[in-house]
């Protein structure tokens, strides 16, 4: 596996001048030379936060829409709130492409996650796992179309951090094993309604496959690393917090929340943890199938 360049990127490099607007901004920030010691450490910390914030942009805008429409959207508006959310999500996506804030590859990842998430939504709502209490026209069955963008926000985040932080996994488990694990997790999300829930076994399989794996990422100049299993948990925790915001805004409800909102069960962390496996496997396949970046992914 190739090692990422730890030196400062050249803002005039063709690999960045033809890239998204953010890639050029990032190149300029990474070219800055802070003083060694505490100033350099602080700069790296702030740059890490800036990059994370940018990676979360799509999801943050969606959460802002959920909260904003919950408090401010007129109850008697001719356009249903859910339909407005769908149009708003499409507008955000189009705007990010038009203004080169997002690459077409990232848009492709979003589309894949949208499709995978919508299929799951159709099944889960029919099984009564959760519901969407408001009306609207832009929906498939009981599922409003904006819901797929919530899964797309997860895909957008994973795809962005992969490129922004030049992530690689080492050692990466055999490709066939990660593909089987991701498929088994996805099937279990459906099958546990009729068959025994295999969640514990999937957790064990995940721990065995990724026990030695590390995320290698570069916030600034120096490559850092983190255990993959810890990374899965931290992102799952972040999504669980976002889910609490979504249910507080009554974008959807769990059965136990129909009589009043309360914090989503901490047990949901496990479901989001497993979703991380699917997400990382999908994105890693798009980056060459072995967890490394393709040579052109930074330039897009």
Describe this protein's structure:
This protein is mainly alpha-helical and 300 residues long. It has one domain (14-286). Helix content is 59%, strand content 5%. It has eleven helices and five strands, in the order H-H-H-H-H-H-E-E-H-E-H-H-E-E-H-H. The protein has a three-stranded antiparallel sheet. Helix 10 packs across helix 11 (268-286). The longest helix is centred in the middle third of the chain and has 23 residues, at 104-126. It starts with 13 loop residues before the first helix and ends in a 14-residue tail after the last helix.
Present the secondary structure layout.
Layout: H1 14-17, H2 21-30, H3 38-55, H4 57-72, H5 81-98, H6 104-126, E1 139-140, E2 143-144, H7 147-164, E3 168-170, H8 175-191, H9 199-210, E4 214-217, E5 224-227, H10 228-248, H11 268-286
Antiparallel strand pairs: 1-2, 3-4, 4-5
What brief labels describe this structure?
three-stranded antiparallel sheet, two-stranded antiparallel ribbon, mainly alpha, disordered N terminus, 300 residues
Short description:
By secondary structure, the protein is mainly α. It has helices spanning 14-17, 21-30, 38-55, 57-72, 81-98, 104-126, 147-164, 175-191, 199-210, 228-248, 268-286, and strands spanning 139-140, 143-144, 168-170, 214-217, 224-227. The longest helix has 23 residues, at 104-126.
Low-confidence sequence ranges: 1-18, 293-300
Distance between the termini: 21 Å
User: Total domains, how many?
Assistant: 1
Number of helices: 11
- The structure class reads mainly alpha
Shape descriptor:
globular
Average pLDDT rating: 86
* Total DSSP E strands: 5
Using the CA coordinates, give the radius of gyration: 20 Å
Task: Tell me the helix content.
Answer: 55-70%
Strand content: 5-15%
Within the largest sheet, what's the order of strands? 3-4-5
The succession of helices and strands, N to C, reads: HHHHHHEEHEHHEEHH
The main sheet comes to: 3 strands, antiparallel
